[in-house]
Amino acid sequence: MDHLQALKLPSMAKFNAGFLRCNQSFEMECVGPAKGSYEHRMSKMLARSRALFIREYNNKLFNWLVIFSLTMVVIGRFVVKLLLLEAAAWVMFIFLETYTRLFWSSESLYYNPVWHAIVSSWEAIVYSPVLDLDRWAIPIVVMMSFLAVYWRCIGARGRIGRSVLPLYNGSFRSSSGRPRTD
């Protein structure tokens, strides 16, 4: 249960799957007259762990969304240079920060139906049967950053010859073809 509490990317589905795996091993391996009392202890531990996990889960997810929105602002401004992406990220960041200030706490956000849609999307992305992002998030982010640096720095060498700005090294001439006299 301690391992499930310390997930980098929190996932309720992963928490439930881990607890079911723990419960199944308990059911199969625990025998004897004390099984009933230990089963009662396990159910109490589940209730406490689930309440703590849900509280921490919502707070971590909120913080990850704030970090994601700020990261998308930087990517939209400096990497991709797409105004629409940057504007959408700013709107997301402003919404997340002002909603908690207007309605006193972020806990009021957790009962909103939009929050439940965000949580279900998060669960589908983080705990998918194809790729477990809790294990692969850091290597994927490192590879994506290397690709972004390559694309912005090394991949741009092919575009140096066609500069957008006029240069005085002969690339900007008048239509008559004569040299400037000023």
TrEMBL record:
Q: Which UniProt keywords apply?
A: Membrane, Transmembrane, Transmembrane helix
List the InterPro entries: Guanylate-bd_C_sf
Source organism superkingdom: Eukaryota
Q: Name one GO molecular function term.
A: GTPase activity
Q: Does the keyword Transmembrane helix apply?
A: yes
Show the stretches that span the lipid bilayer.
61-80, 87-104, 136-153
Q: What is this protein called?
A: Guanylate-binding protein/Atlastin C-terminal domain-containing protein
